[in-house]
């Protein structure tokens, strides 16, 4: 198999380049892309990429594989390889630090902007705050986000306005707190999103839904925020 | 050394998992100038992989539940070498720590009355006289660790904690009095090495499951805190005690929660027999993890394993129905399809006991202060050094941890360490600065690696180490094979001390980090192997073919590994809880 991998070391390279490497997959097995990277790194220790849990829950190894964002650890070769070739690039739209490692500051900044924590200024009870199973079910499909940035870096609106558009991941989290029956800051949260960019730069392209490795639907969550903003305005 | 930049804080927490972030939160809320130093962005820490839940007597599933029952289960689960004062503290303070998590926003699953949902887990009873299965594990579906870790990160953002994300702690810095005064760390992005100066240093670096070839642990679980403390001369306690989780996915090693069996799943052999009924007639599939793991291996060794090579057994879940599986165990369905190509709704998951958890670690008191047990049965406090979570051995897990107790350990003792440090700082704790020579000592290992012109290959040595530990120090052990393993480790040690770093660049150099991590794995593996060979009995997770019985006369105690001379001593177990009578050792059956 031919692996073409994006290489860039700021200390030695004037510009990024694609490195083509032929590798034999041990036993011809259907291994994960992350396993391929491990094989490459055994031969060339200078190859840089992030990884941690290797089971699709930590969100470290988001990257672009044959044109589609995903997690290397849960993407099997059979899912992505075309004509015995695999092209691996860093997530698009963010500055590259080295090889497949991108600078995620802008992504995290947007996450922090939506105040991703529960706000409830009423005194806490001595036990848990009660929440019905139905209220809790409102958080399903939202809290599972792993902050891998696959969605946000697949979004053309984020590419254009990474500083002003919160992006699909951040908005999914914004709605996660708007939807939480234990949170009392709905009005303040909506007020902070109520500008032409934060939410309304979403044009429903749905790349986010297409690439989310956890099967989440940021577009739907964004739709719900829009409705809340419109309802509040009327 | 004058080119070494210094960052100064009151306290630093090394590690951004559950324990580290709970400690950091406590410290940030107390107003101390605190930084959390973490080699990965916090939500990439291994706590994220915890699935089934956090065990705690919050009396939701059973309004009459009692933390003393939880305490009893934990003492019994530990095979009686868990410290009863620490277990008492964890189980009694637990509910408060769990409710705090709810107040921070943790999206727990709920009961019809709106309370936190609790599921049955292994080793849970309703007290010493009532072996009825309890349901005491608070859950957020089967993603409790993920929910907990993200919630703690969010709470820290709210509290304004300083994070040094993607910074790698290399070694501890000790002053002339032997007090710990911070650490040497590398900013991974730029490669800059700095001295992070602090009056209190909390190790919250997690476990080191990567010493084994087959593990549920993340790739980052390389025992960095253990490596740092052992190199600094801090003894390690109960390092022979490693938990093998009954259900790692065969081949891949990824975890399948005990919650599967809590929800009604069970293990079968190749004949379709529910074999745990033979090994643990009462608790069956929900016996202690050590008991279940050994039973599985015995089934496999007796030729009743599943698959073409008969090298695993099956976890059967399909009888629970699609609705239960998708609502209670959605993450497992996902993992199983990805890594076992099996949809649990239709077919069983191939599973095998897989290294999961380090019960041993840095001995601490309840406030997280690191202790140096001496050879006469006493101990001294190591000034400035704290530990909490998996790297610590407080010890609430003893020889075998109960499922769901690791997440409780994290939040209870992360919190306790923060409280203890705040108290000391308020009392005016002061230490002498590190001298240039002190810093030079802490830089020695990194300097050697950076100057290496030849030596051993990191990936090759790592593989050799992991294979050796897997083969000679696994679920069943015996003296003769451990001797062989020890001889091999001595040889691997020479290579690990002499690694070659071929890529000496600065920007995000993961080769350098992997070399430093390997040396930490080496320290942990060596401590494990030496302690395992010395403990001549079977207790909890430590099972020997040549000493098959528990030996309370000689070994109802902690082991203490001394890194200076690589010897092993003993330390008394605490049998003096403050508010309840101690639970005396009994024969442990499920």
Automatic annotation (TrEMBL), chain A:
It catalyses: a quinone + succinate = fumarate + a quinol. The keyword Electron transport applies. It is an enzyme of class 1 (oxidoreductase). Pathway: Carbohydrate metabolism; tricarboxylic acid cycle; fumarate from succinate (bacterial route): step 1/1. NCBIfam families: dhsB, PRK05950.1. PANTHER family: SUCCINATE DEHYDROGENASE [UBIQUINONE] IRON-SULFUR SUBUNIT, MITOCHONDRIAL, SUCCINATE DEHYDROGENASE IRON-SULFUR PROTEIN. Two distinct, membrane-bound, FAD-containing enzymes are responsible for the catalysis of fumarate and succinate interconversion; the fumarate reductase is used in anaerobic growth, and the succinate dehydrogenase is used in aerobic growth. This is Succinate dehydrogenase iron-sulfur subunit.
Automatic annotation (TrEMBL), chain B:
Residues 10-407 form the FAD-dependent oxidoreductase 2 FAD-binding domain. Keywords: Cell inner membrane, Cell membrane, Electron transport, FAD, Flavoprotein, Membrane, Oxidoreductase, Transport, Tricarboxylic acid cycle. One of its GO terms (biological process) is anaerobic respiration. Belongs to the FAD-dependent oxidoreductase 2 family. FRD/SDH subfamily. Two distinct, membrane-bound, FAD-containing enzymes are responsible for the catalysis of fumarate and succinate interconversion; the fumarate reductase is used in anaerobic growth, and the succinate dehydrogenase is used in aerobic growth. This is Succinate dehydrogenase flavoprotein subunit. Coiled coil: none annotated. FAD binds at residues 15-20, 38-53, 224, 390, 406-407. Its cofactor is FAD. Substrate binds at residues 245, 257, 356, 401. It comes from the Bacteria. It is an enzyme of class 1 (oxidoreductase). Flavinylated by SdhE, about 5% flavinylation occurs in the absence of SdhE. The active site is at residue 289. It holds the Pfam family FAD_binding_2. Gene3D superfamilies: FAD/NAD(P)-binding domain (3.50.50.60), Fumarate reductase/succinate dehydrogenase flavoprotein-like, C-terminal domain (1.20.58.100), succinate dehydrogenase protein domain (4.10.80.40), Succinate dehydrogenase/fumarate reductase flavoprotein, catalytic domain (3.90.700.10).
